[in-house]
Every structure is written in C-alpha cells, then in structure tokens.
Write a structure and sequence with these properties.
This protein has about 300 residues and is mainly α. The chain contains eleven helices and two strands.
C-alpha cells in the first residue's frame, strides 16, 4: 500500500545548501509579514464594514468576508511573490484510490479533532462555539458558495500555494507543521483548532507530493460540503441525522486506522536548505511578525468565546 503515500521519489539530485540565518531571516520575516497582514485584514475588514452598515444580514456579511479574502489575498501575494519558490516540488498525479485515501484521512481526522475538542471543552471551556452549527440553514446557497466553493479556493492558495511553495526548501516536516499551524490559527476559533490542524497536515502532505493546487482545493471543498452544507440539507429529520452521524463515525474510525499507517509508513524528505528538524520551526515561530499573527489569532479566538 506504499503507493498511497507517493514515497517513490529520487532524492539523488537534491543539493542541500547551508542554513544562513541572516538571509533566511529576511525570507521568513517577509513571509511572516504577509500572513500577519492577512489575518489583520481578514478580521478588521468585515468587522469595520459590519459596524458601518449596521447589518446582520448573512448574505451581506458573506460579501464582506469575500472582500476581505480578495484584498487580503492581493496583499499577501504581492508580499510573498518576492520570496523564491522551492525547486524540490515536482508535479505528480493522484489516482482514484490515492485521492479517496486522502479524502477519508483528512475529513475523518478533522472530525476526530472536533470530537476531541468537544471532550476537552466540556471540562475547561463549556461555552466553546461549534463552527459546524454556526451557519444559518436558511442561507444554504450562500453557505454552499462561501464554505464549499470560494472559501477553500482562497485558503488553499494562501496556505498551500503561496506558503508551502516557498517553505518546502526547509524540508517537508517544516512545511507541514508551519503551514498547518498557521492554517489552524488563521480560523481564529478554538473549537476548530485541532480538527483544522489535522486536516491541514494531510492537505500540506498532498500538496508537497503533487504540487497540484486543484487536488487540495477539491479535497477541501468536499470536506467542507460534508461538514457544513450536508448537515443543513439533512435538516432535523432524526433518522437522517442518525445515518449521517453513523457515516461520520465510520469515516473517523477509518481515518484513525489510515493515520496509523500514514505515520509509520510516510517518509518525510529533507529540503534544499540544511536545517535540523526543529531549528527552522523555532526560527520561524520566534519571528516578530509570526508572533503577532499568533497573538491576534489567539486574541480573536478568545473574543469569539463570548
């Protein structure tokens, strides 16, 4: 079953370079600035527009969020485009079994993350908001367009295409952990952190092994459809809800089994820059702009608890 992990790769022509702190600091600082500005724009643009328009209309709020996506993405791209992309990514295709494997693994681990969060929050944060219940079912079309179509496109561009393409040079472990942590923090909701982080790990791995943004966008879209749109389509019918919950449980169990296989069989590769497994992460997450990003995400997440 090793073919599921795309481990068939020749590293013989991968020439490593020394980790030079001064030059790498400039690169990582530029990336950090871009993502710090992104999270600020994603929070402040909708907030200010909602205050100015005195609206509670969900459709208008979604428009404000799309404006924030567009402007935030524009700013982010123009900052990070000056950072060179990694040369270690190579185009590969996923066959149907591989695609289904990653879909079950990613969606199932996300559900497991939410389950763990429910258990933890019942002891420490009983009023934690479940984002899967925060969408108004009367706005099913808006929810579908935002959560299952447009949102995943923007987020995969932000955290896979723009970010991983530029940090894969430090190795796959660095790229997976850094992108997944930023991706989870970016959602600014404590409930989502574990589930989104687990899902982000799988999306990052798929992108690293395929260099194909379409794969991760569609995986993200399907997962959001299953988790956000489908429950609204089901409605309050207890029989359908039970079937849905059983299917989710089966997928979560399969994902747990797949995850064990994934952890023991996956072979993470080194990058083009010689850096120890955690030196680069420490260097990245002690960057002032990344620290501001983390602070803002945690602060907004805390405010969302109320």
């Amino acid at each position: 079953m090793d073919f599921l992990l795309n481990n068939d790769y020749d590293d013989s022509q991968n020439h490593s370079l020394p980790f030079e702190k001064d030059s790498e600091k400039k690169i990582l600082s530029k990336l950090g600035l871009g993502y710090c500005l992104l999270i600020m724009l994603m929070f402040f643009i909708p907030t200010i527009l909602i205050i100015l328009s005195h609206t509670e209309d969900m459709h208008l709020i979604l428009v404000y969020n799309l404006l924030a996506f567009s402007f935030g993405g524009f700013v982010l791209y123009h900052i990070v485009k000056e950072v060179p992309e990694s040369e270690s990514l190579h185009d590969r295709k996923l066959n149907i079994p591989q695609y289904l494997f990653y879909l079950i693994l990613g969606y199932g681990l996300m559900m497991l993350g939410y389950l763990l969060t429910n258990i933890i929050s019942s002891f420490f944060i009983p009023n934690l908001t479940n984002p899967l219940q925060s969408f108004d079912s009367s706005n099913i079309i808006a929810t579908f367009l935002y959560a299952a179509i447009l949102g995943p496109i923007f987020e995969e561009l932000f955290f896979r295409k723009f970010l991983i393409s530029r940090i894969a040079r430090y190795g796959e472990l660095f790229a997976i952990l850094a992108s997944s942590l930023l991706f989870a923090l970016y959602h600014m909701n404590y409930y989502q952190f574990l589930g989104v982080f687990f899902f982000g790990v799988i999306l990052a791995f798929v992108y690293l092994r395929t260099n194909n943004i379409i794969y991760v966008i569609t995986l993200h879209q399907i997962a959001n459809f299953l988790g956000l749109v489908l429950p609204n389509l089901i409605g309050s019918d207890p029989t359908l809800i039970n079937y849905f919950n059983i299917c989710d449980l089966i997928i979560a169990v399969l994902a747990g089994l797949f995850a064990l296989y994934f952890v023991f069989k996956v072979k993470l590769r080194d990058g083009e820059v010689i850096v120890s497994k955690f030196e680069g992460l420490k260097f990245f997450f002690t960057n002032p702009s990344i620290l501001i990003f983390i602070f803002l995400a945690l602060l907004i997440g805390y405010l969302n608890l109320g």
